[in-house]
């Protein structure tokens, strides 16, 4: 499976597992799971065909491990705009987490902090390199440091997804560091 096809199938799966399952007639359970056969059949019924082998390749090859497979079911690991309960327990974060963005969003972030926007949670990275890659998807990256230890001490809840993405509802501006130093 070539890279272009891998990306195309991955984006299709992400769109319909995270945001628009109903557009192809899928109904995820409360935790976001759908049957793999149901996903493949629904996609084919909507003129997008892929095989189980292609799905398995996308799941295995995705550098961000966006998808989780459990038996005959699949779901997106995080990033949903639909209502799901991923069943992730609260976790103690490392002292600092990181968020990649671009300069054009900094004024709003300084004023409002990090908000989930169309997702359920703000996504944070455990390392600066990952946050840099995330920010670079939208342009020249800017990496913000999040004082997650202080947030946790102040009662903010963190969860970590199966693929290592740290999730929290919001990050108020006072917990953000806009320079390279902590």
From TrEMBL:
User: What's its EC?
Assistant: 2.7.1.-
Superkingdom, natural source: Bacteria
Return the InterPro entries for the record: Ptrans_KptA/Tpt1 (IPR002745), RNA_2'-PTrans_C (IPR042081), RNA_2'-PTrans_KptA (IPR022928), RNA_2'-PTrans_N (IPR042080)
Q: What keywords were assigned to this record?
A: NAD, Transferase
Q: Answer whether the UniProt record assigns the keyword NAD to this protein.
A: yes
**Pfam families assigned:** PTS_2-RNA (PF01885)
Q: Which GO terms describe its molecular function?
A: transferase activity
Q: Which family is it part of?
A: Belongs to the KptA/TPT1 family.
Annotated function: Removes the 2'-phosphate from RNA via an intermediate in which the phosphate is ADP-ribosylated by NAD followed by a presumed transesterification to release the RNA and generate ADP-ribose 1''-2''-cyclic phosphate (APPR>P). May function as an ADP-ribosylase.
Q: What is this protein called?
A: Probable RNA 2'-phosphotransferase
Which species is listed as the source? Streptomyces incanus
């Amino acid at each position: 499976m070539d890279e272009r096809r891998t990306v195309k199938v991955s984006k299709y799966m992400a769109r319909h597992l995270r945001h628009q399952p109903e557009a192809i007639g899928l109904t995820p359970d409360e935790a976001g799971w759908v049957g793999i056969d149901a996903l493949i059949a629904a996609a084919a019924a909507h003129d997008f065909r892929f095989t189980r082998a292609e799905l398995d390749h996308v799941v295995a090859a995705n550098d961000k491990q966006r998808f989780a497979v459990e038996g005959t079911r699949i779901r997106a690991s995080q990033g949903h705009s639909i209502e799901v309960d991923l069943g992730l327990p609260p976790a103690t974060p490392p002292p600092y987490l990181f968020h990649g963005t671009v300069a054009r969003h900094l004024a709003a972030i300084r004023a409002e902090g990090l908000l989930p926007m169309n997702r359920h949670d703000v996504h944070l990275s455990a390392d600066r390199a990952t946050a840099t890659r995330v920010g670079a998807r939208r342009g020249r990256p800017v990496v913000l440091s999040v004082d997650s230890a202080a947030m946790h001490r102040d009662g903010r809840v963190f969860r970590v997804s199966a693929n290592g993405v740290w999730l929290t509802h919001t990050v108020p501006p006072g917990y953000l560091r806009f320079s390279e130093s902590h």
